[in-house]
Design a protein that fits this description.
There is one protein chain. The protein has 177 residues and is an alpha+beta fold. The protein has a single domain, classed as 3-Layer(aba) Sandwich (NADH Oxidase), CATH 3.40.109.10. Helices cover 45% and strands 15% of the residues. The protein has a 4-stranded antiparallel sheet with strand order 1-2-4-3, with helices on both faces. Helix 2 crosses helix 5. The longest helix is centred in the middle third of the chain and has 34 residues. The protein is globular and about 60 Å long.
């Protein structure tokens, strides 16, 4: 079931309850391909994505995320990490501190949208103890940026309210002559 893009982004929800159904390898591969196609500064792809299915790893990640236990319940947990060492040589401190984080974030967004297009659910988790997530990942040189629970939804959350477009966009908007 592939959706039209604007329909897809309007229907995507943050899901915190998951079915026990496993995520098919083909769908994971498609999600990974989408993340790999994400734009990145200088095409350096300054990020790594760690994939966890084992209970002990998901429990450690949930604990690092201040006991967000839905990370345990989802069949898969993805951890998107910035890899500053890939962008720092070309872009210096800006690459290290910003571009690598942006790269990981954009890849995560692509993965999230691909998952939704494949009938899967996610929730973006940004509240966590970075050092504890680094312990799970096993690499202190990486900076965890986001974690996702990933699986088939066991709930259908309502749409959340959004700010008015005019409240967000500034500059020459709306266009005036």
């Amino acid at each position: 079931m592939q959706l039209e893009f604007f329909e897809l982004i309007s229907l995507r929800r943050s899901v915190r309850a998951y079915s026990t159904k496993s995520v098919e390898e083909e769908k994971l591969e498609r999600i990974f391909q989408a993340a790999n196609l994400a734009p990145s500064a200088g095409n350096l792809q300054a990020y790594q994505v760690h994939v966890y299915r084992k209970q002990d790893k998901k429990e450690a990640l949930a604990k690092a995320a201040f006991d967000q236990t839905f990370l345990i319940d989802a069949p898969v947990c993805l951890v998107f990490c910035a890899d500053p060492s890939r962008s720092a040589p070309k872009y210096g401190d800006r690459g290290k501190e910003l571009y690598s984080v942006q790269d990981a974030t954009i890849a995560g967004t692509y993965a999230m949208l691909a998952a939704a297009d494949l009938g899967l659910a996610t929730v973006w988790v940004g509240a966590f103890d970075e050092e504890k997530v680094q312990d799970v990942v096993g690499d202190k040189s990486l900076r965890p940026v986001a974690m996702f629970a990933l699986g088939y939804p066991a709930e259908e959350p309502e749409a959340t309210p959004r700010r008015a477009i005019e409240e967000i966009f500034r500059g020459d908007f709306p266009q005036t002559d």
